[in-house]
Write a structure and sequence with these properties.
two-stranded antiparallel ribbon, 6 helices, mainly alpha
Length: 195
């Protein structure tokens, strides 16, 4: 049983690496051809397409479905690893692992948003021309976040754009650390469940 779990864990790790390579290849224009990219596409796209159908995993130009797909594989890999190490697993440990995978995805999104907002703030402070296509993408990601945070905190008051950026970045950092603390605490509690 232990050897089977080790083997399955290794297979899942290899598949995760193949998916990662496939994702990186999509960043380049030569990805669409046959050969290696076509082979990787035939192996990974059926799995990735299952996650692409969830519209809430898309935010503007950004598709977070590969991150969710890798998160699920990470959870499965951790379960196999625990079974390989200890020969048994409890429902509490599975719940703790699931919470950690969800937190991994959420923390990535929060971190990504913080980086995007910091880029926007640096552009604003450096008084750079933000009319290029890169800055339009940055704005398409940052504007909905800024709007929601400012609407929540300031209701109907008008706030300076720079102030809104500072407050949103600070708020996301605080939320990140609060959630991280709660996830660590809840994971510990779940892992100790007797069933």
């Amino acid at each position: 049983m232990i050897q089977i779990m080790k083997f399955l864990s290794m297979l899942v790790s290899i598949y995760m690496m193949i998916i990662f390579i496939r994702i990186v290849l999509t960043w380049f224009s030569w990805e669409r051809g046959g050969g290696l990219s076509g082979f990787l596409s035939s192996i990974t796209d059926p799995y990735l397409n299952w996650f692409r159908r969830f519209t809430f995993l898309k935010a503007g130009f950004i598709d977070f479905s590969p991150i969710a797909a890798l998160g699920v594989l990470s959870l499965v890999n951790r379960i196999f690893s625990i079974l390989a190490s200890y020969g048994t697993i409890s429902a509490g440990i599975i719940l703790a692992l699931l919470l950690q995978v969800v937190w991994g995805i959420v923390s990535f999104v929060i971190g990504f948003l913080i980086i995007v907002l910091i880029l926007r703030l640096v552009c604003l402070l450096a008084v750079r021309n933000s009319a290029g296509s890169f800055w339009r993408i940055i704005d398409s990601i940052s504007q909905p976040v800024l709007y929601r945070v400012n609407r929540f905190l300031f209701k109907n008051r008008i706030v300076n754009f720079k102030t809104g950026l500072f407050i949103t970045i600070a708020g996301l950092i605080v939320v990140y650390f609060l959630l991280k603390f709660l996830v660590v605490f809840a994971s510990g509690m779940l892992a100790r469940l007797p069933f």
